[in-house]
Amino acid sequence: xxxxxxxxxxxxxxxxxxxxxxxxxxxxxxxxxxxxxxxxxxxxxxxxxxxxxxxxxxxxxxxxxxxxxxxxxxxxxxxxxxxxxxxxxxxxxxxxxxxxxxxxxxxxxxxxxxxxxxxxxxxxxxxxxxxxxxxxxxxxxxxxxxxxxxxxxxxxxxxxxxxxxxxxxxxxxxxxxxxxxxxxxxxxxxxxxxxxxxxxxxxxx
Length: 205
Prior knowledge:
Radius of gyration: 18 Å
Order of helices and strands: HHHHHHHHHH
Protein name: LysE family translocator
InterPro entries: LeuE-type
Distance between the termini: 33 Å
Transmembrane segments: 6-28, 40-65, 71-88, 109-133, 148-170
Number of helices: 10
Keywords: Cell membrane, Membrane, Transmembrane, Transmembrane helix
Subcellular location: Cell membrane
Strand content: under 5%
Shape: globular
Number of domains: 1
Structural class: mainly alpha
Number of strands: 0
């Protein structure tokens, strides 16, 4: 991978990270409820899952997406159900600021990472993105381990940058919601976004 192709690949990954989808909706909902910091582990989990798809695409495992469609359908439905469950939990979230802050602090990093990983892993079409764009940036016929490592690092940095930009902007908007009524609307709005993301994922073909 040349310097020019590496920079181009990085820009495309950042744009991909900003593109609306289940992962972006999850980051948006979490940042609106808990602020930007709790989104770090969530975004990291998504990035790691994406990197696994990237490596799979690099190693020629795209055949899984075409021949194991039933498995990916199960993964997609489970992921959609999980997003809807998270949305329901957000609807029932407390409406006082102190309780929200305690909830944010009590959310384990490992759990947030797992949530992010599952959200991204439940969208197998991510691999199609890498399958479509990788030939533009590297010679897959002469692919080296260095190329795979470089692409993985660029993907990690690019996705984290894109997702955390969304988290920061959403967190800034959150500061304007301090009353019980506003927080209730915020919780239900974020929950509706998450349920919508689950429904969107469930209806994807």
